[in-house]
Amino acid sequence: MGAGVLGSSIADRLARSGWDVTHVERLAPGHVRSGSGDESRLIRSSHGPDALHAQMARRARELWIELDPRLFVPSGIAWFAHEADGWEAASERTLKALGIPVERVDPAELFPSVNVDDLAFTLYEPEAGILWARDGVRALADRAVTAGAERITAVARPDGERVVLDDGRVLEADHVIWACGAWMAELFGDVLDLRITRAEVFYFGGDGSWATPGVPGWVDFDGAAYGLGDLDGRGIKVGPDDEGPVVDPTAVDRQATPERLEAARSYLAHRFPALAGAPLVGNRVCQYEMTADERFVVAPHPAHGDRVWLVGGGSGHAFKHGPALAERLESWLTRAEEPEACFAVGERRREAAMRTAGTRLAG
Ligand SMILES: Cc1cc2nc3c(=O)[nH]c(=O)nc-3n(C[C@H](O)[C@H](O)[C@H](O)COP(=O)(O)OP(=O)(O)OC[C@H]3O[C@@H](n4cnc5c(N)ncnc54)[C@H](O)[C@@H]3O)c2cc1C
């Protein structure tokens, strides 16, 4: 259930392995209100000291390129490190141990204008890049259909181990997998603890020297911001990443707020001085599906054994893992491997470990 990046990755993986797949989506794969409905997403392996996520991200990158090399823009990603031995230094050690390319660089060689006054160093992942996100989700969902999956447009609701559709049909299966993004909170709020929070991204106008590729993607973990250059003329992207308010993903108005716009403008002026005063050329409002520790939920429903699986809690990173997570999920369904304990349903300790320190800054 669900045709965002997680549901589509799973439908694609299972259909291509010969499973009999029915893929249900209320609207369209990558629709504008889904988490997966944006144009671009960063694909990088750095996850601090966490080797499992670094390896999964590296594998997902390979799978995206295998799906269609045009989906992946090999721009590289720069990490602005505020501390000599913080999250980025831990990432560097982990990636080196895994043989994933990473190096320290002078950011003046990567950006037309950059301020490093508050930085200890800049880490660079040369093989990281940007995914054409919505196009990628559609490519996965379509490949699932080509491999034999049936796609149904309907609203689904759980009825024990069964699925009831709003057109009256009732679906039964050996395994029912719910991957409904932000809507998992209302469907399974009794067993999942998800915070659905508002996120905003902004696009600013610059000159041709800010084109990506050329200019890499970037993440400021401790500064709680990320972005990229101008991808295909869309504008220079900046995402201020302090935790936003809880929202209803169906009803929220998707208009920029002045506070977030000001946060984006002031980050831009601070980090990339030549862009101070750059005009706003667009914006998007999206939502995160946050777990307390920013790790996915990929686990059997506690009341239904492995007949019903819950998949979600993307917490700002389902694109960099989706296809690899689907591969792992298949090995858990066939019992070739034991499910990853860190993705289980249950209590989680609050931690800002995976994305930026925005949640930590928000308290
Ligand atoms: C601003 C922002 C920046 C991000 N940046 C990155 C990044 O750089 N890298 C990265 O890896 N990730 C990033 N993410 C996170 C990533 O986009 C999300 O984790 C991901 O899109 C979530 O995918 P999903 O499949 O879980 O959910 P969704 O994409 O929301 O898909 C869920 C689908 O389920 C459907 N659905 C819901 N309820 C029902 C129902 N009852 N019946 C039928 N269908 C239903 C919905 O219509 C929807 O299509 C970012 C997210 C945001 C908001």
SSE layout:
Layout lengths: L4 H12 L5 E4 L14 E4 L7 H17 L4 E2 L3 E5 L5 H12 L4 E3 L15 E5 L3 E4 H14 L3 E4 L2 E4 L2 E4 L4 E2 L4 E3 L5 H4 L7 E10 L6 E2 L4 E4 L4 E7 L4 E5 L17 H14 L8 E11 L6 E4 L7 E5 L9 H12 L24 H4 L2
Parallel strand pairs: 1-8, 4-15, 12-20, 14-16
Antiparallel strand pairs: 2-7, 3-7, 4-6, 5-6, 9-10, 10-11, 13-17, 13-18, 15-16, 16-17, 19-20
Helix pairs in contact: 1-4, 1-7, 2-7
Query: Which CATH C-level class is it?
Result: Alpha Beta
Largest sheet: 9 strands, mixed
Instruction: Tell me the name of the CATH homologous superfamily.
Output: D-Amino Acid Oxidase, subunit A, domain 2
| Molecular shape | globular
* Helix amount: 10-25%
**Bound heterogens, unique:** flavin-adenine dinucleotide
The CATH architecture category equals 2-Layer Sandwich
Mean pLDDT, to the nearest integer, reads 95
What does this structure look like?
By secondary structure, this protein is of the alpha+beta class. It has a single domain, classed as D-Amino Acid Oxidase, Chain A, domain 2, CATH 3.30.9. The protein is 25% helix and 25% strand. It contains eight helices and 20 strands. The strands form five sheets. Strands 4, 5, 6, 13, 14, 15, 16, 17 and 18 form a nine-stranded mixed sheet that branches. Helix 1 packs parallel to helix 4 and helix 1 crosses helix 7. The radius of gyration is 20 Å and the shape is globular. 49% of the residues are buried. The model has no long low-confidence stretch (mean pLDDT 95). Bound molecules: flavin-adenine dinucleotide. The site of flavin-adenine dinucleotide has 37 residues, from helix 1, strand 1, strand 2, strand 13 and strand 18. The site of flavin-adenine dinucleotide (FAD) has 37 residues, from helix 1, strand 1, strand 2, strand 13 and strand 18.
